[in-house]
Amino acid sequence: MLAGAGCGLQNYLAYTQSVLYDKSGGSGRVSGLAVATLTAILFFVGPTIASYIPRCMAGTLLLHVGIDLFLEGVWDSYGKFDLLEYTGIWLIVIVMSIYGMEAAMVAGGIAAVSTYAVQNVAYLSPIRGVMPATTLRSSDWNRNAASEAILVNSDTGRSRILVIQLQGHLFFGNTAFLTDQMHDLLSPSSKKKEDNETESNVSGEMKVPLVLIIDFGLVLGIDSSADHAIVKLKDSILKEYHINLCVFVTGSDEGFPTEFDLSDQLSMDYNKHSEAFSPSDETSLLLGQNEDAESQENSQYVGSRVCNSLDIALMEAEDALIARQNPLLIENDILSERTLNVQSDRLSLQEERKEFVSKFKDLCADDISSDEANKIFASFEREVFHEGEIIWKQNDQSNSVKLLLLGRLIAELENEAGTTEIVPVGSMIGELGLVNGNPRMSTVRCLSKEAVLYSMSRTSFQELISKQPHLARYIDLICVKYLALRVQHVSNRIFETRCLPV
Question: What is the pLDDT of residue 293?
């Protein structure tokens, strides 16, 4: 205003000073005030100084700045925007070179509006569906009875996990809609609350979420503005809506479909918490029983993180819910991970027997006494495998069922594109083939340094059926339990992709 009133230079359309300021290390208000002061001084002494500067130096500086800005705005942008957005960048460059800055600004506005119109017509709603995880199961199927009781409880379990699935392209045109929809889902209006309460009385599934899973598996592309909006949305979710854990699912090992390092930005809160814990700190945390607000803030299941698959995200969500009620239940899983490569003599035979009884009781869908589990143990024989050894190959005859007591196995489907499944401690394998007589459906080998398994042959199983059929029935129940879990596993939700996960 003062410059205009004094007939001075009001403004000029250039941001070269800002670029030079940033690349020279400028930061904060102090640096900005220093630049303003220096500019004010040069207003008076600049013309005198400029008379001593050779024109070639000024020309070199302008050429350098021009090339640098071109590389930054055009060359480095290649691959960071979709074809339509990148075409708009070249339109601005060409118009600016021919007609100047004012015309380029008009062209930029037209390009932005055109991009918005095309993308908005092609991709209307970024949210494909919303559902609680009540009917979903992760592949962590061997949880003990106490953990499973927490997960099936309507107040503490999977109904407190909310899954939101996104689709299509996320860009500046529908990002605002996505943000508004997310806020509506997490903080509905009073009328919507009444509707939800009514529905909750009917279905028993509508609960205030403690864990939020946002699935990007069907997202085709994310532009730069959507990247930053998603990061801001993550901060808002964690701060405003009391979500304990927010898990973002990329749906691919290659990460999110964007050049921006979105995975790093979305997992910053989780990394901040996890880096603060050494193994001993983590164990001491899990041993703590205090469930007040302070202990919840220190939990490793607080903040946000990124997972490659919805299955892993559900594992994290289930662990978070269990740890919220009883951290001791998660401690055993952590300890089993750390003792993956132990020697087979870590436990005595008597201790292995007790461990077998405990694992078998966890597997049974029906109540089973310790006495009955001990009787079943008598039909099993101890086996030890070493790393790389084959337990059985695909299409082999099914002649035994095995329970993994120590170590870890991996099941592989032959003639497929690397389809594998980890077999953790406490798992029973081969039960389906033993019951119905089908050949082995996968190749299983030892993944850890050693693995201790207890095996029951088909002959022993037939003898158990003839002499103690009520005990043999527990093998049938375990088979039914595993089949039911696989039916409820999240991989069965294809979501109209009409393809197999090969």
Answer: 42
The answer to whether residues 108 and 127 touch, using CB atoms and an 8 Å cutoff, is: no
Measured distance CA(47)–CA(57) in Å, rounded: 15
How many Å apart are CA 234 and CA 261, to the nearest integer?
Answer: 15
Q: What order of strands is seen across the sheet that includes strand 443-446? A: 390-392, 443-446, 409-412, 420-423
CATH code, domain carrying 128: 3.30.750.24
Burial of 350 (0-12, 13-18, 19+ CB in 10 A): exposed
On whether both 137 and 182 belong to a single domain, the answer is yes
- Tokens 């800002």 found at: 18
| Cβ neighbourhood burial of 227 (10 Å; 0-12, 13-18, 19+) | buried
Measured over the CA atoms of residue 239, residue 244, residue 249 and residue 254, the dihedral's sign is positive
Residues 169, 180: Cα–Cα separation, whole Å: 17
**What residue has token string 């006495």?**
371
500 occurs within a structural domain: no
Helices 458-467 and 469-488, interaxial angle, to 10°? 120
Residue 489 one-letter amino acid: H
* Pair 132, 97 in one domain: no
Q: pLDDT tens digits, residue range 48-87?
A: 888 888 888 878 888 887 888 788 888 887 776 767 778 8
Q: Is 365 exposed, middle or buried (0-12, 13-18, 19+ CB in 10 A)?
A: middle
Please give the tally of structural domains in the chain: 3
7 domain residue, yes or no: no
Q: Quote the CA–CA distance of 127 and 182 in Å, as a whole number.
A: 9
How far lies 260's CA from each of 127, 207, 254, 447, in Å?
A: 21, 34, 13, 36
Structure tokens at 61: 């500086």
Helix (H) or strand (E) run with residue 131 in it: strand 127-132
Among 338, 353, 386, identify where a domain stops: 338
Instruction: Name the range with the highest mean pLDDT among 25-29, 134-138, 203-207, 387-391.
Output: 387-391
CB-CB contact of 426 with 404 (8 Å): yes
- Number of Cβ within 10 Å of residue 288's Cβ equals 12
- The domain in which residue 114 lies consists of 12-121
| pLDDT, tens digit, 9 for 90 and up, residues 465-481 | 999 999 999 998 888 88
Q: CA 121, CA 130: separation in Å to the nearest integer?
A: 22
Which of 405, 386, 395 shows the shortest CA–CA distance to 441? 395
Specify the 3-state DSSP secondary structure of 207: coil
For β-strands 450-457 and 381-386, DSSP reports them as antiparallel
